[in-house]
Structures are given as structure tokens and as C-alpha cells.
Amino acid sequence: MPRAMHAWHNERCRSEAVNWGDFGCPCAELFVTDDGEQGIRVFIEEADPNCFAVEQFVADYLKRHGFPDVVVVASW
Questions:
Q1: pLDDT score for 1
Q2: What is the pTM of this model?
């Protein structure tokens, strides 16, 4: 999980509703769809569920570090 400060320095992320003081990832899980697609679902807390730039930032970070099929889910 990228440090919150990395996302904070991204201008698109900074403009979204995020509680940067408590922002984090409580868990992640492997998933397989009915169609056989596999990946990792990452849950981030203290971010608006509509904060697409933050979700994309986290997904891109994880893809660059060897996790190709990532779905990020934000919640308060």
C-alpha cells in the first residue's frame, strides 16, 4: 500500500474527499469471478467511495509493483 503522502502529493488525489490522517488499507482479498477472472480486491478506508483518482492511484501503484489485476474499493 502506498504511503498516504505519496497520494497527497498527487494533485488529482489531493482534491478528493479523503481523511488523510486515517487513510489506510484494512484488508485485501483474492477474488475469482464466475467468468474465471482473478485478481486482488483492495479495500481502503477514510476515502469517499467516489474518489476515483485515489482508487486509480492505489491500483496503478500496486500494478507497478507486481500486482496486475487490482480492484480498489474506497469507503468511509
A1: 46
A2: 0.81
